[in-house]
Amino acid sequence: MSKYRTTPLQSSKMPPGIPYIIGNEAAERFSFYGMKTILYIFMTDHLLNLAGTLEPMDSVTATIWTHNFVKAAYLFPIVGAILSDLIFGKYLTIMLLSTVYCAGHAVMALVDLPQLTQVPPRTALWWALAMIAVGTGGIKPCVSAHVGDQFGRMNENLISRVFVWFYFSINLGSAFSTVLTPRLLEHFGPSVAFGVPGILMAIATLVFWMGRHKFVHVPPGGWKFLRESFSGPGLRAILNLIPLYLLIAMFWCLFDQTASRWVEQAKHMDRNVFGFEINPAENQVTNPILVMLLIPVFSRLVYPWLGRFIELTPLRKVGIGLFLTVPSFLIPACIQMRIDGGHTPNIGWQILAYVFITAAEVMVSITALEFSYTQAPKKMKSLIMGLFLLSVYLGNEFTVFVNELIKEKQSEGIEWLAGSNYYLFFAGSMFVTAIVYVLWSQFYRGQTYIQGEDGQAS
User: Fold this and answer.
1) Could you give the domains of the chain?
2) In angstroms, rounded to a whole number, what is the distance separating the alpha carbons of residues 42 and 35?
3) pTM to 2 decimals?
4) How many CA atoms lie within 13 A of 357 on its CB side?
5) pLDDT in tens, 272-328
6) Rounded to an integer, what distance in angstroms lies between the CA atom of residue 215 and that of residue 352?
7) CA–CA distance, 392 with 357 (Å, rounded to integer)
8) Three-state SS annotation for 424-445
9) DSSP SS3 for 278
């Protein structure tokens, strides 16, 4: 018999384990986004060689490294999901992979000390990013599915609220780290800037462990998990959701370039905001701050207002969000035209682009996360979360593919997708994807599943 509760409490109140999950998520996201915020700047401005002298990457190479890391971070969720649902269960999987995650942060803090470690910085950076990708990727589907596992039929009405707060905690942690780590990098160097996120990851692991007796621990499905995955309902759920994930991959392709190409563009802009000079990487804080502002605005104002005119289903929310993503790249295209014309536009124009892409994120990411959980049969929650996160991998794979083509063309002396054409290409790709999504969404049919209950048609 398990020493932990394996089924939700029969209560209409908020489950007691939720505060520990939210606290863990805020600290873990601080660690991840703190490191990711300064990664591009570190590689292009601070990276050393084994002799300890400056040897930074060019912008295209750094873009490829950045998005390869994000790719890996969103490829490993499917591995974590299978380990969780088949063997270990969500709690143990999260604890085991969190130790790998902490080790990756420790190595990251040593990348800038080659004369101490005698390890080439690019080699140490590769291993650090690999371990962080395994850790953060492996726990992602487990944590989000673990949230939903805490609820039963009596309090399932609170799931939407908790997923909103779950996402809010992500952005709260992200906002603090996005402001702090660029300043730490500027004033104290890479080791301190990467070390602080590592400390927060250790705190995140501790907070999660402290909640172990408060959580519902849904046992791993074992071979039942495989049978359910390849059963009629399991296969239908996967096949129903795959087109959704393929289509929203383009959103992630654009969104994650805020950590690479938008940072590079910010280097060439007037970054004076109300007399305060901001770091090129620091403008990324605009996104989490806007998320925290826009979540209540959308929940209390925008969605009720739209609901007066149309039935605002999850799939319709996602569709609107995809169209909102298009102008978020048309604005940087206009900015780049000004830069290439010899002007220095103010960073406020990039903040306007953040308004559009963040509004799109609220409608696409939060909605798709909750929708994916509800469409997953009860022993497949982590697997479906892993498939959802695989859409981020695919989006970043497309970014890497395009940038590798650009690098190849450059080696041949050909300028391809240079200047504003780069942003116009991705804006056009997003618009075509949104049109295809609208056509596909008319034919979606699925079922809703809550822990402890059979699926219901939706």
Assistant:
1) 18-446 (1.20.1250.20)
2) 10
3) 0.83
4) 29
5) 888 888 888 888 889 888 988 898 899 889 999 988 988 888 899 999 999 999 999
6) 41
7) 15
8) HHHHHHHHHHHHHHHHHHCCCC
9) coil
